[in-house]
Write a structure and sequence with these properties.
Layout lengths: L1 H18 E9 L3 E7 L3 E9 L7 E18 L5 E15 L5 E14 L2 E18 L2 E15 L1
Antiparallel strand pairs: 1-2, 1-8, 2-3, 3-4, 4-5, 5-6, 6-7, 7-8
């Protein structure tokens, strides 16, 4: 377990320095995941998602998103906290499961950065889109959310 934690730490910190940002998140449908962000606005994430048929089993969800708009909502001049928003679009594929799934979604999020730790932020994000299952072939609206910590 100690080796896993050390490797996980190196993965996150390596992502921050090499790519431009990384983070940890939890939410729905992925209950835990890691993400890497490029300076161009691309975000790649890998998370664990419970299966529909058997919530005790998990599958791997891989997501690719693009931030299309971002800006500052509030800044107190560097005293305590800056609040920013972002919006974009993306797609997620849930792999290694009995009923493979793909979804396309739009996303809207808020990030809070604290002046004392400018490279560490908290974020909340909502995703809305359409999901598709292949066994059996069906479709349904998609609603997801993420809460997490981002490192830049």
């Amino acid at each position: 377990m100690r080796n896993f934690v050390f490797a996980f730490f190196l993965t996150i910190t390596g992502g921050v320095w090499a790519i431009g940002g990384a983070g940890l998140y939890g939410g729905w449908p992925e209950v835990f995941g890691i993400q890497f962000v490029t300076e161009q606005g691309w975000r790649m994430s890998v998370g664990l998602a419970p299966e529909r048929a058997d919530p005790a089993r998990y599958s791997v969800a891989v997501s690719l998103d693009l931030v299309l708009a971002a800006g500052t909502l509030y800044s107190d001049g560097g005293e305590a906290v800056d609040l920013a928003y972002y919006a974009g679009a993306g797609a997620t594929a849930s792999l290694l499961r009995a009923d493979p799934e793909v979804n396309g979604h739009a996303m809207l999020g808020l990030e809070a950065y604290f002046t004392a730790m400018k490279s560490v932020g908290l974020f909340a994000e909502m995703q809305l889109g359409q999901r598709f299952w292949f066994t059996p072939l069906s479709t349904r609206p998609y609603l997801g959310f993420r809460l997490g910590v981002s490192l830049r």
